Amino acid sequence: MPTSGKTASSRARLVRFAPVGIVVLGLALGYALGLQDYLSLGYLAEQRQSLRAMVDANRVWSAAVFVGVYILAVAFSFPAASVLTIFGGFLFGWLLGGALVAVAATVGASILFLATRSAFGSFLRQRVDGKVKSLAEGFRKNAFGYLFVIRLAPVFPFFVVNIAAALFDISLGRFVAATFFGILPGTFAYAYLGQGVDSVLVAARAAGREAHLSDLVTPQITLAFFALAIVALIPTIVRQVRQRGSDV
To answer: Is the dihedral of CA 17, 23, 26, 31 positive or negative?
Structure first.
């Protein structure tokens, strides 16, 4: 009986941590295969004509492949979201490219969120107390507002937010909604930049260097994201102040 109990416990632990293990292995395999070399503006500069020809030849199939690659990149925490969004705008135009990215990024983020929650979802509830527990409870109650603001202003890497959200006992529905609507402004902005990236790639190549995101993302765009985040945060702040006032 004790042996069967240990076996069941081991199986349960394996099932619990298997999704995270797959994510880690997938990320390691991606780097081992050198996928980071393909998910770069340098690769886009070299292959832009052939990639465009591929999309023109079969737009539906190309869009499906793009969405699949984006989902895998996000689910495996591969740091290529910004570059892939620019790819999407370049290949499909800002409107279709932005829409494809919004859906793919949300699906990929949700997969990583569920994998992390499966392994570590009860960590904070079981092991923290005091101010940290209060912070976690406050984050959980206002999950949509906080996540929405964080998504609007990409201060933290996309994959970090996906993982952190899973530790605060947030429902999948709130996570999906806050992620999808929160990334829309940035997604379409980057896709729009991608639509005109050809001239930037040509100029960088003529100068004998590789193009970087800094060539596309201006300080004004970054400030605009922060401004959006501040505006989105106002209702949450007002709600918190009112709640504290009613508690006094």
So the answer is: negative
CB 128 within 8 A of CB 173: no
What pLDDT sits at residue 146? 78
Q: Give the pLDDT of residue 212.
A: 58
**Residue 65 backbone class (left: φ over 0; alpha: ψ -120 to 50; beta: rest):** alpha
* Domain span including residue 59: 11-247
Cα(234)–Cα(49) distance, integer angstroms:
45
Give the span between the Cα atoms of 135 and 137, in whole angstroms. 5
Q: How many domains would you assign to the chain?
A: 1
Residue 133 has phi, psi (to 5 degrees) of -65, -40
Tell me, yes or no, whether 1 lies in a domain.
Answer: no
Cβ atoms 175, 144 nearer than 8 A: no
6 domain residue, yes or no: no
User: With contact defined as beta carbons under 8 Å apart, do 94 and 105 qualify?
Assistant: no
5 is a domain residue? no
Spell out the SS3 assignment of 3-70.
HHHHHHHHHHHHHHHHHHHHHHHHHHHHHHCCHHHCCCHHHHHHHHHHHHHHHHHCHHHHHHHHHHHH
Residue 43, domain member (yes or no): yes
Below-70 pLDDT ranges, the chain: 1-16, 121-140, 154, 198-248
